[in-house]
Every structure is written in structure tokens, then in C-alpha cells.
Amino acid sequence: MKCLVFLALFVTAYCEIKEEDDVLVVTTANWDEAVTDDANVLVEFYAPWCGHCQSLAPEYAKAAKSLKEKKSDIKLAKVDATIETKLAEKYGVQGFPTLKFFKKGNMMEYGGGRTESEIVAWLNKKTGPPAKHLETADDVKSFVEPRDVTVLGFFTDKESELAKAFIKAADSVDDIEFGITTPASSGEYKVNEDKIVVLKKFDDLRADYSGEATADAIKAFVKAESIALVTEFTDEAAPKIFGGDIKSHILLFISRKAENFKDTIELFTETAKAFKGKVLFIYIDTDVEDNSRILEFFGLKAADAPTLRLIKLDGDMTKYVPESKDITKDTVSEFVQSFLDGKLKPHLMSADIPEDWDKNPVKVLVGKNFADVALAKDKNVFVEFYAPWCGHCKQLAPIWDKLGEKYKDSEDVVIAKMDSTTNEVEDVKVQSFPTLKYFPKDGPVVDYNGGRTFDDFVKFIESGGKDMGSTGAPEEEEEGELPPEEGEEEEEEEGPEGEQAPKIEL
To answer: Contact, 241 vs 231, CB < 8 A?
Structure first.
């Protein structure tokens, strides 16, 4: 009997769920005790070396503490996926950090932000009613004070069309908390009629809704008002910037150390008022080392600041460059309005054509000579689109050079490469590095996704671009995807494999 008691105590101790900064430390051994069918648990799968995990950690801990202090039944947990590899594999973890919410045993992807308030708001929305019922003016004040953005609905008749649309809108917005009460309980907010109000701790502090009684209109209003007129790009702000409905962003690249920084931001903010809900105004501090990739993505250097760029995220992430380098309210307004009116032509980057571009067996392509070489009607051209910093591109380089050597005297086969961080080509979209495309002289472009050995490439070329062998890159060379989340040497969801371009989700 004593042995059984000892064994039970040993198992209990072994499976004990420890806490670090109010966050449950979950392992394979204690998973079933932590994530049960009657619990609500947000689990972060992380890697100790992951920069984004390290940035998330303090906000994650603050969210866990906040929920504990409020006696919430929601728990926050973390799993070191570099140790608990089988657990990470079981739940489909492919990068870090990956957050998954287990609501009463049902798993869903986490879709909120990375700050304390955003994490708590998302979890509360997923586990509670769309809008919290607030009985008194004190309840309303207590609900508003700790939040950066709050949406309040004041309704005498909770069955009115506006009230119903409000609840429907609340149910469709995950990252902002809604409260519902009556005008009589508005207190210091002085509401005397049925009204929807967005309260915020930035810009004009308050925005009253005056649109139609439809959920879509209310949601659009809330989304537009919940983000500042001008937002600095940071890891914390990225989810809100990129997760919104506004996919057209104007970027101001500027150094915080610049003498005219404050005046320029004020000018930028004043201009943004006229385009609220249409275009997001974002500034990027060129002094931040992690933002160097964003500069590179736009073909810029820190010395080019202050300067403007505009990008449309929908479709092919089209970029636009203003005609004037001056940054005034008039030039910025004209630039944005011309974009909205469809008067701007997309900007395609191109380096100058090197004098010795065709000296070596592997030809060097840039935007300016791409069409002449790759689209020539008398050649079959195999092109590698690469990034200088890409590890997989560096691994491929000697094989690509060997391929070029084999076909250097060929009359109809050309092996080429193009640096896609400084060159862009219309109708050729690069989604990862390296990207390989075959441009036959008598057919459509072929996206190569076969093996990456010398023999694989030769077999493919000799087959006229038809035989790729086993499709898919080797597992150890799995590629990452281009933009979105912006400007990181490590991708937004980092992993030990893959080469991503800067996560640019502007």
C-alpha cells in the first residue's frame, strides 16, 4: 500500500504543472493535465532562440497575470517546441512562435495581436458574449479604463435594429472588446440617445458612430477608429496593421534622430485625417536595425530617408513611388489621392545593367535587361531569383555555376540569375528564395519545383522543361514565403528551416 501511495505521489510530482511568470510550463508529460476538455488554454509553442518569442514573452506574461487577477478561467501556457518536438509535430507547429487556443478541448488558431491587451481581448471575445453587459456608470468606467480601445453601445431598446447590428458587429471583431449598456448608465461619457461610441487613448480620444444600422458598416467604422492616424511599425503593432481590412499603406521612412522628425510626423498625421479608413499611414524608424530588410525590400538605404513609399497588399504587393521627393502636406495628399484615383503607375525596381553581365556562364539579369534575355524567342532560359542573404541560395550557387558551365556554349539554353531584392519584373512574382523559373522559347513559363541537384536540373532542361522528377524541394531546403509581417531577419513565424524575405505585410 505504501508503495502505491509513493507511486501516486511520484507521478503527481512528475506531472506537476509549474508556472513561470503566471504562464503554465507544459510538457508532453503534463499536457493532459493542463489542456483538458473543460479548460480554456492558450498555448504558445516557442523556441528559446527565437527573437519573436523573446519579444512576445513579457506581453504574454502580463496577459497571464491580468487574467489571473481577474479570476478568469482562461489559462496561458507555453511549450518549448525544441524539446517537446513530438507535441509540436502533433499540433502542426511549423514556425515560432505558434499560438493555438484550446477551447473546451477544441483547438483553433490564435488570431489576435501580440500585446497584453490584444491577447486578453481576443481570449475574452472567444470565451464570452460578443459584448459585455455593463449595468452602471461605474461598470462602464471600469471597463474602459484599462483598454487602449473600447467600443460601447448605448441602447434604450436592446432589440432595435442598431442594437442588433452592434451585437453582430461585435461578434465579428476578435481583437477589440465591446460593451453594451443604456444611455442612463453613460456617466461621464454623456450619451443621451442610442449611440455607438469608440473610446481610445490616442488621437481624438473618442469617435461617435453616425452611419447605417448594419454590422458591416459598424465593423468598418470600429476597425478604422481603432488604429492611430499614424502608427510606428513595430512587432507589437504589426498584427493590428496587417490584420485590418485596409490593405493600402503609405510608408514614411524616417530617422527618429532627424532634426525635423517631430514636425514631419505632425505633418504626416495631419494629412492622414483626410484618408482615414482608406489608407493606413505608417512610419518606419530607419535607425532600427531590424528595419533594414524593409528598406531593402523597397530598394532604399537609410541615407534616402526621409522618403515615402506606398504599397498595396492585395494581389501582387504593388509598390508606388512619389514623383516629388519633398514631404509636405500637399505632396503627400497628392500622392495618396493619385493612388486612390488609379493614376499612379506601379514602381518596379531595377539595378543598372552590369557591363560584364554576360561575361560568365551564368548570366546576370536585372530589371532593365530581363525581357531581352529571359523572354527571347530563340532561347530557353532557366533563371534563379535569389536574395544575397539567403542561405539556401548560397548552397545552390556552386550547383548553379556548374550548370552554367555545362551550357555556356549552348546555342539555345541560357542559365541566368537575378537578385530579387533589387530587381522586379512585371508578371514575374517571387514568393520565396530561391525561386526557379524556366522560360522556354516556344511555350509558357514553367515554375520549377523539382530536386536541386545538378543531375535534376540537367534532366529537366534536356526534357524541354517537362521532367522535374520528384516534385518539391528537399526537406532540408524547404523555402519560406515572401512578405507579409515586415522587416525581420527572422521571419514572423521563425523556424529552423526556410528562407523568407522580410516579413512585409504592408
So the answer is: yes
